[in-house]
Amino acid sequence: MTKKLTFRETIFVASMLFGMFFGAGNLIFPVSMGQMAGSHIWQAAAGFLITGVGLPLLGVAALGISRETGLLGLGSRVGRGYGMFFTCALYLTIGPFFAIPRCASVSYTVGMEGILAGEGSFLFQAAFSFTFFAAVLFFALRPGQIMTWIGKVLNPLFLAFLAVLVVRALTAPMGGVREAIPSGDYVESAFSTGLLEGYNTMDALAGLAFGIVVIDVIRGLGVTEPEEVAKSTVKAGIFSSVLMAVIYLLVSVMGTQSTGQLEVSSNGGEALARIADSYFGGGGAFILAVIVTVACLKTAVGLITSCGETFAEMFPGGPSYHVWAVVFCVGSFLVANLGLDAIIAYSLPVLMFLYPLAIVLVLLTLTGRWFGNDPVVLRWALGLTGVAALFDGLGALPEGTRALLHLDGLTASALKLLPLSGQGFGWVCPAFLGTAIGLAVHAYAAGGRAGKREKTGGER
């Protein structure tokens, strides 16, 4: 008899997936968006939910439906070389280069800096980061217990403390949504700005990365049939995505309402700190510290586990999972101490490059049965997407870096040539063009094969 997940098991797997997805970055970006979007929050939130919730769900679904064991198998449908490149680039981005260090930096900046700031703050940050990654490594070295640690312990703790802050803020609002004044890019293009803001969560990339952990957990619960594994993966993805969407909306509205009494903060971490202080005084710092630290801890554990398992699989003759976990924790610790601002500034260009590749790969995987998952279609689509996305990424580099590398002329030319480049979506038209060319080549080749079969049959 085919084993299926019970409803209770599905909820626990979904809780684990949500826990891995929802880190402090998922709090600081929507609250900041809420403050800046003002009365345009609903348009901005609609865009944010597409990239912050819809794309991660599609990524999890694509892995489940494809029946691949992880991103390497999915990317290798284009070619083995591309699969290795894309898998390494994605996991290093959401791993030791950006996302994992950001977990420690956000925890310190938002939760602890206000208490420990002052002379010697760098040493405090280093000590905090060391302690944080020691805890992460403790959990990550026990991957078989990840559903228990994240799904049953850390995630409920996070949700309980977050509910205290959000419920208090929404039941005693500082101001109204309609009266809030939009600022920045949200004045003229709230929807597209919200779309780009969703990139910062890195969840569309994480959706592809976490698939290997979810599939392993589901199999560990006794589900072995590929079809049931796929169904269970998609169900868990849907449950976790609904919860994410609800929290995003509540936190965004909380941010918008806060502008009735507070000025727009320079970043979401500062906004959260001010909101918590306004409602709870000194106790707000403790509540926020717990929310942010637990959120970051569970996400970092999920990322270290995913990265370690993937690299151990990619390089079977190399280090073991446990060695990779230690290496990634040490590397993340070193990067974390560069500071949150530097991590965010240099992560955006990489995301502008990787996100389009992830989106196109996911969409073509979900529609692959219509063209037999022909690698030719994937290569054309991803090839043209990658070239255009590279220009988007170069254009998103910090101004000083662009000037140093003399890239302003190049990015300005791309801005003129590629439609939607000004909004950060210069890759969209090349992606459609590449897909169209790939489908045309596929159809031509299929027609040639059919004609050859008919000719061979006629000669017989």
TrEMBL record:
Pfam families: Branch_AA_trans. Keywords: Amino-acid transport, Cell membrane, Membrane, Transmembrane, Transmembrane helix, Transport. This is Branched-chain amino acid transport system carrier protein. PANTHER family: BRANCHED-CHAIN AMINO ACID PERMEASE BRNQ, BRANCHED-CHAIN AMINO ACID TRANSPORT SYSTEM 2 CARRIER PROTEIN. The chain crosses the membrane at residues 12-29, 41-66, 78-100, 120-141, 153-171, 204-224, 236-259, 279-301, 321-340, 346-364, 376-397, 425-445. It is a multi-pass membrane protein. It is found in: Cell membrane. Belongs to the branched chain amino acid transporter family. Component of the transport system for branched-chain amino acids. The gene is brnQ.
